[in-house]
Amino acid sequence: MVVPNGPGAPFTTLFDEQDDREGRVLPESFAAIYSRWPLPEPPPDRPFTFVNFVMSHDGRVSFNAPGHLGGGDVSRRDAHDRWLMALLRARADAVLVGGSSIVAAGNHVWTPAATAPEDAAAWAALRRHESRRPVPLLVVLTRSGNVPASAPALDDSRLPVLIATTTQGAERARSILGDRAWIRYLVIGESLDRRAVMRALRRNEGVSHLLVEAGPQVHGSLVADRLIDDAFVTLSPIIIGASAARLVSASPSVAMVSRVVRRPKRSERIPAGKTSAVSARPMAAKRLPVTSAGLGARKTSRMKYWAKACTM
Predict the structure, then answer these.
(1) Per-domain boundaries in the chain
(2) H/E segment holding residue 278
């Protein structure tokens, strides 16, 4: 196993309620940087699905301005955030994005090495260790099929793509993209039923673990359908202000913070000026629930910052 370089220093775990759950754990060299992160087996009818977002102090996920639509501006391209994003991709059989994400991404591609290239060899070794294909399958969820022909994520024969769309959307996407052997289509009627997409990914594509990096609308719809199992949310202390891009754009959900990590500091106090990360899992409401109003955290002196930072 290739030893990863990491983001410069190990993550600091404040509390972790996932460490003792059943699932495949990370190799020791990766666990020394992040955690064991047990990854559960998927349900029989869909992949085990986890979502990744960066969120500002006031609950925004984007500046929603031309040239600043992605999360990099919100996280300030923090090294730990980038490394964790790559780790999530490395443990996913597929990455699901929306059609608008393809447009907003510019030259980006959804591979581990694209986010943390310094550990490209380690990501490849981890994927081999967990018996995954060399790169994640990119699943594009789009009702209209209106995708950019020149997007690098769709224009590289080494990166397999599955476009999940409607009958008319498939016709439009084919007319835009032409004949590209590495792009396949999953046609789901006219309503683009998300549960049907999940079933097809599990049964037909062999996707056991799915990472969602779509925008708030897709994320919100998956939350409303109770199709999200884990949420990795990086909390950035910046305040964006007026913006249409919130973390969830759909019905309320219920979850509980289960793991909190942050960048290492000498002081045990959580600084308001440093990027941190939260992992939450949907579950029956108890203790401090998560609704569309925000994430909750345990009421201890060390967690007060998190309770505030998670409010949307």
Answers:
(1) 12-302
(2) strand 276-282
